[in-house]
Amino acid sequence: MRPRQPTARVQHRITLACAMKLAMAFPPFAIMGTAFGQQGAESAFPTRPMRMIVTSQAGSAPDILARILGQRLGEALGQQVVVDNRAGAGGVIGYETASKAQADGYTTVMSTVAFVTTFTVHKTLPYHPLRSFTPIARVASVAYILVVSPTLPVKSVKELVELARSRPGKLNYGTPGNGTSQHLTTELIKVRTGINMVHIPYKSGASAITGILNGEAHLFFAGLPPALPHLRAGRLRPLAVTIARRSTIVPEVPTMAESGMPGIVVDQWHAIIGPAGIPKAIVAKLNAEFVKSVGQPDTKKLLLTNGAEANPSSSDELRQLLTSEIAKWTKAAEAAGLKGKL
C-alpha cells in the first residue's frame, strides 16, 4: 500500500513552520540585511538635490553664506543644493520647517546665534534648539557692526549714547526680529546706559538696513556681509564691531570695548544643523565636506570678501557651542527683562 501524500494545506503548514524555525534560528541575518541596506543608502548619499533653509531674506548674512557654501557642497557631492528662504518671526518659521523635515540629510538649515536667542525670550516654541535638531558643523563667524545713517550727527558709540540720552524715545533701532541677538544686545546697552530707544523689528537684517537707508530706523547691529556694500559706498556709518578684537575686514572700526562698552561681545556664528535623528554616517559626511569647503583658500577669500571668516568645527563641538550659547543668552535675556516675554 502506497503511503498517503500530505494534502496541499498540510504541505503549506509544514513549509510555514520550517520558515518560522529558520527565522528564529538565524535572526542576525535578517537584521544584518536591513543594516546593510541602510548602510548602502547612507554611503550612496546624496542621490538627489538637497535643500538648505535660510531663516532670513535674500541678501542677509546667512543667505550670502548659504549660497556660497551651498554651491561648494553641490560641486563636491555632485548634487544641486537649493537655498530655500523662509524668513519671518525672528527665524522661527524657518527653524520650524527644518525641524519637521525628514531626518535623511537632504534638508539642512543655516543657523546663527539668533537660533538660541529666540529660544530664551519665547514662552513656547514649536521646537527645541537641542532636542529637535542634529548639529552638523559650524562654518563661519561674522562680526556685527553697529551702523547709523550718515545723517545722524554721531561718529562714535559715546556720541550715540549722548544723543539718545538727550532725545529719550526719539531714536529707533532696527533688528531682524524680536528675540534676535541684535535685539538682546541693544536692550542690554539700554539697561547699562539708561537710554530709551524704540525697537523696530524687521523680517531680516537686509530689511533693517533698508530701514536705516530710508530714514525709518536710526541704528542697527548689522551683519558685516550685507552691510559692506553700503559701508563702502558711504551710505552707512560704522561705529563699532561686536567681536573681541578688531575685524580684519574693517580694521579701522573699533570694538565695543574700545568704545566704552566692555562686555558687549557677540560672535554671529553661522552653523549647519538638520532635523533630529540624521544618521551619524550622513552627519559625518556632511561635516567633512563643509569643513573641507570652508578650509579651501578660494572659499576663505570669498567669505572674507563678503564679511565672514571661516571657523569650522566638528558636530560635537557645535553641540557644545549651542549648549553654552543657550546659557549665555538666557542670562542676557534675564538681565534685559525679556526672558519668556514673547
Give an overview in words.
This protein is α/β, with parallel strands linked by helices and 342 residues long. The chain contains twelve helices and ten strands. Helix 3 packs across helix 10 (280-295). The longest helix is centred in the last third of the chain and has 21 residues, at 315-335. It starts with 7 loop residues before the first helix and ends in a 7-residue tail after the last helix. The relative contact order is 0.17. Mean pLDDT is 87; it is low at 22-26 and 28-32.
Q: Which keywords apply here?
A:
342 residues, alpha/beta, 10-stranded mixed beta sheet, 10 strands, globular
Quick structural overview:
This protein has helices at 8-25, 27-44, 61-77, 92-99, 114-121, 157-166, 181-193, 205-213, 224-232, 280-295, 297-305, 315-335, and strands at residues 50-54, 81-85, 107-112, 133-148, 172-175, 198-201, 219-223, 237-241, 267-275, 308-310. It is α/β, with parallel strands linked by helices and 342 residues long.
